[in-house]
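Narrative progress, year one. The postdoctoral researcher (J.K.) led the effort to move from monomer predictions toward full complexes, under supervision of the PI. The following entry was the first complex the group processed end to end, covering 224 residues in total.
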Amino acid sequence: GEDVEQSLFLSVREGDSSVINCTYTDSSSTYLYWYKQEPGAGLQLLTYIFSNMDMKQDQRLTVLLNKKDKHLSLRIADTQTGDSAIYFCAERGGFQKLVFGTGTRLLVSP
Amino acid sequence: ETGVTQSPTHLIKTRGQQVTLRCSSQSGHNTVSWYQQALGQGPQFIFQYYREEENGRGNFPPRFSGLQFPNYSSELNVNALELDDSALYLCASSLETQRADTQYFGPGTRLTVL
């Protein structure tokens, strides 16, 4: 079946790196995604990775994929207060739907 | 700015009523998906429409129905509202031919059922 798990909360100081982790269960997932949701807003696509890749870097964001362990992580370098939000990892399931985790709330303190 | 718009922004209904939510897809996108996001949860897939036909459905009862129009805008209809239907309803558009099928989300409609 399809299930995505994330830790609920992460707190970091401004300027530090943040690492948000996710585990998924569907080994047939072809794409995995990271979305950001700010209070009262919809979901903003941050990045995605194809399942045959190990790593993808996009400016301050680095995505690491361990397909053997079904583990995905998002590293945000030089975290800023504007990065405070809820981060969702999602896998692409059947019918091209997205299966989301419960989200990790990132709090960045000055 | 994704270009996906939704209306209304907020809505309050009472149990048993019916509601229609609207979504305008990003220009050039032919696929729309609807998700329900309960408070403190991740979005749950309701269904997807591709070229005006339902293309897949999640674990939601038949009182959740949808439409996609020739201009690729879409509606989500919910009949016989229940208290548990209170949630943020998100639509997402995508271009089916894109390999990553990247879905771009609108700001959502917050539905409160009293």
